[in-house]
Write a structure and sequence with these properties.
Chain A: It is found in: Endomembrane system; Membrane. The structure holds two protein chains of two kinds. By secondary structure, chain A is an alpha+beta fold. Among the domains of chain A are: about 130 residues, Calcium-transporting ATPase, cytoplasmic transduction domain A (Distorted Sandwich), CATH 2.70.150; about 260 residues, no CATH class; about 230 residues, Calcium-transporting ATPase, cytoplasmic domain N (3-Layer(aba) Sandwich). Chain A is built from 36 helices and 33 strands. By secondary structure, chain B is α+β, with helices and mostly antiparallel strands. Chain B has two domains: about 60 residues; about 220 residues, no CATH class. In chain B, about 30% of the residues lie in helices and about 15% in strands. Chain B has eleven helices and eight strands. In chain B, the strands form two sheets. In chain B, strands 1-8-3-6 form a four-stranded antiparallel β-sheet. In chain B, α3 runs antiparallel to α10. The chains are: A alpha+beta, B alpha+beta.
Chain lengths: ~1050, ~350
């Protein structure tokens, strides 16, 4: 499918959408139904709605329907309001963008219109620092060379300025002509690839001959970019509105579910089944009792002939009575604490990177607990472990190694001498360094030259060349000027054979303006360049140099050149142009054509660039490995460099402590044998305390992932450490997927665009807002400034979040079960007829206020100080293995709620027996008993008390009495005067003390016993921590 | 502020001076507060043996005396209970108790003799006790309409009163519902020798009920007019607020065994006094095997004769003291050094994790 855009042609009507941007999810009309529909897709909400509807049937409802409808409506209103507010803000920003005034050309004259009225085919004018309103094909700029600069930060997060050029066919048109330009652009249908635009343009006479001119992404101005350093630019709108590259790439990422959420869902399901069982058992018991006993109780006056549905009435009543087993408040509580966890990450001063002025940020507020349960970290190397600040360190030119003594070739006297003596090898080498790149030199008014480079390696090479007196002074269009030893050399850049990750090399075709000779300058990875050497060249020294540099952890690039004949160039140039204007498979076709030129190269030498480790990386990895997290390093770099970096940052240990197992081979058989061997070694040595790691490269990995996935999965389970080199972005994502399929919690961390897929695939994606732009950080759930913050993110934030949620969620079930068990127990003394002991107001307030507020203060709870955790990272195991929230801990809470319900109920009915057994009083005594118990339970389970906790627990306790005094003074309320009456009775207070004592005594004794005689590691550390310091937090010590 | 600097420099390294603080305002550095850094001063108690033992000991020390006092209070109460439902059935009717109670022609009068076991100080509370009577049954407890009782204009509001809403011809019943319909209707007259012991039936209901729940201007109407008579009839010339037996009855009991206040006797009774009770045994508990008891009781600050609290306190207090001793003993025999890192499992097995 193709799209034909007729430039500036009023007569040609197209039905492409206008430029109205809409990011909103709802409209005013569909908000309510659509939002409700979305909310009711959740099982919990469906369940509560069903319960609420059943309650409308007054025959079966034990309580006022308001006790469920109230909270349900509140919960729905809260999430709906949040959605509406977000959507409104989106609407406002859309409106602003849509109503912005832009200049377009209409009937040969410029016109000021709103951005939303731009149509495909219009010519749009943009001035400096203006935002591009839609996707344009550049047709003219103010610069004579036909270039303009754009900032694409909003699109891909990259902060450097990019150069955009007008297609050659439009070159040289002045503003007057641009108004009248006519033509057709043939382009693909809208897609979301912001790096590709395979189109072509043909202008109609009289502007130029009827020649098709290819267009690439470099000829476009994409929506949301800003025009910089250019007075004006104009272009033809090709994609508008939501069909722009930006609009198309906007998608709603799938919500991630944490392991804890899954566990809570599972437990909810179990409770639901339990509830059904209770309903069936009690429902049938109730029906039996009704037929045998209740019919004799004349005062109940059961009819003898009842409608058929009467048999359902009692079970349904129990269903409603037990519906509170699943706490309606849990979702709201969890959402609240989760957003606070995220805020704590945003607020954390210790994760603020001073150097780049970036605080940590949690873009996904829902998955903090997963941080504490990470088992595998898959990390990128460049820019993640290293600084991505490239420094030219050594080189090997024509067989001579420079920079060996000082470790800095730029200070090597030999090299400086060679430069001064115009050694031909060195000059060629430096020329390639200075020219074989896409760097833009920018001259400041003071004459200082600075370079804008998209790749850090190119930046390092150009800077190093200029330090060695080969200065790239300017690049004006196709002309490059170089100063070498005060000599000015002019070159014409004929073509750029761009770098792709498949080719792993780039080349530039230049012609010397003086001699007219044409040269091909190439640079790239050693394995991409060395095989292309002309036959007969001795490349052994280069291979040795590459090995040597790689062992030092340096990044190597191989530089080469070749002289071309004019005829050869012209022939090739035609092919190249053809390939470049292809609409289908352009990248592949171009690569093929490039290959035709890149051969019989003269290898000039090897450059070695250092990429230093970020501060704190080895320590961070050491601690995280101690805490039981396995590390896999996935890098596009070569094997030896990767291993070297891995050694430097504690990822692997050197012999004899550690051992590396290599999986390699070129053919399937070789790879299979190698994999089998490694797997065998792994199995044998898995019991030994030896650190094994396997190393695999992208080629072998591709074979393995397609053919031997099962064996590899076994290997992945056995191996704590792995190094995967030369892997592509999609392989990174595949590896994450593989680990996920083994039920491991994975965290992917990276900094560049090539890590985005892996970051999105992993359970948790962490982006480092580094030098390669913000692309990774934007796609990630968490973004941090430096790798070392990962330690704090996992050990402190992840661990605390896990602990807190574990308590909060189980407690929520505990308190709901408690009140529900009391109701069930009461049904045994009320003729199993489904009478509710508690009134509607109490039931609702119990769930919504009395018991949910104190436990929310758990967001400030810390079982261990941050220092203790970092000193004993092994403690993370408790979170990783999910020891604080699993069916058995949950069973403990379940048992506790059953025990407490029995205590409350039995004590209440024995004290408030006979003449005291008035319904309202007894119900309030039981409720107070539950409130007392829950206050003590929260107190006992909380590990640290700030004033917030004190206020939450005991303030809530006081609030319970105040609220009930309030209700007790309303004459029309059912419980009028009850609370006053009770509080005057000594027996009430004595009962409360008894309930607390009996309820908490065994819990305390059991907890103490376990704490002292079979303590968990957490308990031991708690004791160690407290015995060394005073009773308050140790953070400042 | 000290701590703020400490936190700030811990990773930055350079000493923060005032210029740095000023520069901070222009950065994206998170603003420091003890809350945002999760550094609020906190007290972190742990379960040390000393602490736990003292808590148990303290609870025991408090509970035992409270138990003793409660038990003494309960023992102070003198209580006479007389079950009369079986005894009042004529000998020839014991096989057909239901027939007896449902036959209106048979006189329900019955005389019981009670002996005072101990001196009883006035006021003496007279209760009737019903066993196996489910005032808390779902169908029963909901069968009332409070609005109707509170406001004479709302006499027609009989929703939720099923199945005693209206008479056969559709007139609203006041008070409607099963609770009122099944009002207890046994009556008692007490004599000591020849002296009549007056039972004061004033103020037996809650004052708040008389003033706010049962209005002075609402009179019973169409009550117990239907074919099936439940319990007592009401005098339709007396406003509901003065129908204290009804008010007491309508304070439903939460348990199937309950006592309701019948009246008070303001006379001291001596040990071995004989009291004859002339009662009308009208109320049907025979159909479901319920018991009826007449209770005379004094009261203390803790209420009636109920040993439960006293015993419970004594047992719990005793257990607490026992636990305190047991924990102390255990600790002396098998001490554990607090927070010994050697107990950490990963220190014991450095290899296995």
């Amino acid at each position: 499918m193709k799209r034909f855009v007729y430039i500036n042609d009023e007569s040609y009507q197209n039905d492409y959408c206008d430029n109205q941007i809409s990011n909103t999810k709802y409209t005013l009309w569909n908000f309510l139904p659509k939002n409700l529909w979305e909310q009711f897709r959740r099982f919990m909400n469906q369940y509560f709605l069903l319960i609420a509807c059943l309650q409308l049937w007054s025959l079966i409802t034990p309580v006022n329907p308001a006790s469920t409808w109230g909270p349900l409506i509140i919960i729905f209103a809260v999430s709906a309001t949040k959605e509406a507010w977000d959507d409104y803000n989106r609407y406002i920003s859309d409106k602003q963008a849509n109503e912005k005034k832009v200049w377009i050309v209409k009937n040969g004259a410029r016109k000021h219109i709103q951005a939303q009225d731009i149509r495909v085919g219009n010519i749009v004018w943009i001035r400096e620092n203006e935002e591009v309103p839609c996707d344009l094909v550049l047709t003219g700029t103010s610069e004579p060379q036909g270039i303009c600069h754009v900032e694409t930060a909003a699109l891909d997060g990259e902060i450097d300025l990019k150069t955009r050029v007008i297609p050659p066919t439009c070159a040289g048109l002045d503003a007057e002509q641009l108004h009248k330009i006519k033509g057709v652009i043939e382009c693909p249908i809208p897609d979301k690839d912001i790096r590709r635009f395979d189109a072509n343009i043909r202008l109609f006479p009289p502007f130029i001959d009827n020649d098709i001119c290819p267009l690439t992404i470099n000829n476009t101005l994409l929506q949301s970019c800003y025009l910089r350093n250019t007075e004006w630019a104009c272009g033809v709108a090709v994609y508008t509105g939501n069909e722009t590259k930006l609009g198309m790439s906007r998608g709603v990422p799938e919500p991630k579910l944490t392991a804890m959420d899954a566990m809570i869902d599972k437990l909810t399901g179990a409770i639901f089944l339990f509830q059904l069982a209770v309903v069936v058992v009690l429902g049938s018991a109730g029906n039996v009792w009704k037929d045998t006993e209740a019919r004799k109780q004349w005062y109940v006056k059961y009819d003898d002939d009842e409608p058929w549905y009467q048999i359902l009435v009692i079970p349904l009543r129990f269903e409603l009575l037990c519906s509170i087993m699943i706490p309606i408040s849990i979702k709201v509580s969890l959402d609240f604490v989760k957003s606070l966890y995220a805020k704590f990450i945003d607020w954390d001063e210790e994760m603020y990177d001073k150097e780049t002025d970036t605080p940590a940020h949690a873009a996904n507020t829902a998955i903090s607990e997963d941080l504490g349960q990470v088992e595998y970290i898959l990390t990128d190397k460049t820019g993640t472990l290293t600084e991505n600040k490239m420094i030219f360190r050594r080189c090997c030119i024509g067989g001579t190694l420079y920079g060996n003594e000082s470790g800095d070739a730029l200070k090597d006297v030999e090299l400086l001498n060679a430069v001064a003596n115009n050694s031909p090898h060195v000059i060629k080498f430096l020329t390639v360094m200075a020219l074989c790149n896409t760097v833009i030199p920018i001259k400041s008014p003071s004459g200082q030259i600075s370079y804008k480079a998209q790749s850090q390696d190119e930046d390092a090479l150009v800077n190093a060349a200029s330090n060695l007196h080969m200065v790239l002074v300017s690049k004006n269009g196709n002309n490059a000027e170089i100063h070498f030893n005060r000599r000015v050399v002019q070159y014409e850049i004929l073509d750029v054979l761009e770098f792709t990750s498949d080719r792993k090399r780039m080349s530039v075709l230049i012609s010397d303006s003086e001699s007219g000779k044409i040269f091909l300058l190439s640079k790239g990875a050693d394995e991409a360049i060395l095989p292309l050497a002309y036959s007969g060249q001795q490349i052994k020294t280069f291979i040795d140099a590459v090995d040597k540099y790689a062992q030092l952890g340096l990044r190597t690039l191989c530089l080469a050149w070749r002289e071309l004949g004019l005829q050869e160039y012209l022939e090739w140039s035609r092919l190249f142009k053809e390939a470049n204007s292809a609409l289908i498979d352009r990248e592949w076709k171009v690569a093929e054509v490039c290959q035709k030129l890149e051969h019989t190269l003269d290898i000039l030498g090897i450059s070695a660039i250092e990429d230093r480790l970020q501060a704190g990386v080895p320590e961070t990895i050491e601690i995280l490995r101690q805490s039981g997290i396995n590390f896999w390093m996935l890098t596009g770099d070569k094997q030896s460099t990767a291993i070297q970096i891995a050694l430097l940052c504690n990822l692997i240990s050197s012999e004899p402590k550690g051992q590396l197992l290599y999986i390699n081979g070129k053919t399937e058989d070789e790879v299979a044998r190698s994999l089998e061997r490694v797997l065998l070694t792994m199995r044998i040595t898995s019991s030994e305390p030896k650190e094994l790691a396997f190393v695999v490269d992208g080629w072998a990995l591709e074979i393995i992932l397609t053919r031997y996935k099962e064996a590899f999965t076994e290997l992945a389970v056995l191996s704590k450490t792995a190094i995967c080199c030369r892997v592509t972005p999609s392989q990174k994502a595949q590896l994450v997927k593989l680990l996920k399929s083994c039920d491991y919690r994975t965290l992917a961390i990276g900094d560049g665009g090539n890590d985005v897929r892996m970051i999105q695939q992993a359970h948790i994606g962490v982006g480092i807002s580094g030098r390669e732009g913000l692309q990774a950080a934007r796609a990630a759930d968490y973004s941090i400034g430096k790798f070392r913050f990962l330690k704090r993110l996992i050990l402190v934030h992840g661990r605390y979040s896990y602990n807190r949620t574990a308590f909060l969620s189980q407690y929520s079930f505990y308190k709901s079960l408690l009140i529900c068990f009391i109701q069930i127990l009461f049904s045994f003394v009320s003729g199993i007829a489904g009478t509710s002991l508690f009134n509607s107001v109490s039931l609702m307030a119990y769930n919504v206020f009395y018991t949910s507020i104190p436990v929310l203060t758990t967001v400030l709870d810390k079982d261990l100080s941050e220092r203790t955790v970092t000193q004993n990272p092994e403690i993370l195991l408790y979170c990783q293995a999910g020891r604080l929230l699993n069916p058995s801990t949950f069973a403990g809470w379940f048992g506790r709620s059953l025990y407490h319900a029995i205590v409350v109920f039995l004590i209440t009915i024995h004290v408030y027996a006979n003449e005291k057994s008035e319904m309202e009083e007894l119900s309030m005594v039981a409720l107070s008993g539950s409130i007392w118990l829950q206050a003590f339970v929260v107190t006992l389970e909380m590990n640290s008390f700030t004033f917030v906790q004190f206020l939450g627990i005991w303030g809530n306790f006081a609030a319970f009495y105040i609220i009930n005094f309030g209700i007790s003074s309303i004459p029309s309320a059912g419980m009028y005067t009850i609370m006053f009456r009770l509080c005057r009775q000594p027996s009430y207070w004595i009962t409360m003390l008894l309930i607390s004592g009996v309820g908490m005594g065994p819990v305390l004794a059991l907890k103490y016993f376990r704490y002292t005689y079979s303590p968990s590691a957490i308990n031991i550390l708690q004791k160690a921590e407290r015995s060394r310091g005073p009773m308050y937090t140790l953070v400042h010590l | 502020m000290d701590s703020s600097n400490a936190a700030g420099t811990s990773n930055g390294g350079s000493g923060d001076g005032d210029p740095a603080a000023a520069a901070r305002r222009n950065t994206k550095m998170p603003k420091y507060s003890k809350f945002t850094q999760q550094e609020l001063p906190a007290c972190k108690p742990i379960l040390t043996p000393k602490w736990v033992v003292s808590v148990f000991f303290l609870v025991g020390v408090i509970f035992v005396p409270v138990g003793v006092v409660s038990l003494l209070a309960a023992r102070d109460v003198v209580e006479i209970i007389d079950r009369y439902d079986d005894a009042c059935v004529p000998v020839n009717m014991t096989d057909n108790k239901l027939g007896y109670i449902q036959n209106e022609t048979i006189s329900k009068e019955c005389t019981r003799t009670l002996t005072v076991t101990k001196d009883m100080k006035q006021p003496i509370f007279v209760y009737y006790q019903l066993d196996n009577f489910y005032q808390n049954h779902r169908r029963y407890v909901k069968s009332r309409n409070d609005a109707q009782l509170r406001d004479y204009k709302k006499a027609n509001q009989t929703t939720s009163c099923e199945p005693e809403r209206t008479t056969a011809d559709g007139k609203p019943i006041v008070p409607c519902g099963l609770i009122a319909w099944s009002l207890f209707n046994d009556t008692y007259i007490f004599n000591r020798g020849n002296e009549n012991l007056t039972v004061d039936k004033k103020d037996i209901s809650w004052k708040s009920d008389r003033e706010h729940k049962f209005a002075k201007n609402v009179y019973p109407s169409n009550f117990q007019n239907g074919g099936l008579i439940g319990g007592a009839k009401l005098d339709s010339s007396i406003p509901l607020s003065d129908q204290e037996d009804l008010i007491v009855w309508m304070r439903t009991a939460a348990l199937p065994t309950f006592r309701k206040l019948y009246g008070r006797i303001y006379v001291d009774l001596k040990e071995n006094d004989t009291i004859t009770v002339k009662l009308d045994n009208n109320y049907n508990t025979y159909s479901f095997g319920g018991k009826k008891k007449l209770v005379l009781s004094t009261a203390t600050w803790l209420g009636g004769k109920n040993d439960f609290l006293g015993f419970a306190y004594l047992i719990v207090g005793g257990l607490c003291i026992f636990l305190a001793f047991a924990f102390t003993l255990l600790y002396v025999i098998k001490p554990r050094k607090l927070g010994d890192h050697n107990y950490l499992s990963w220190n014991r097995h450095p290899a296995g994790r």
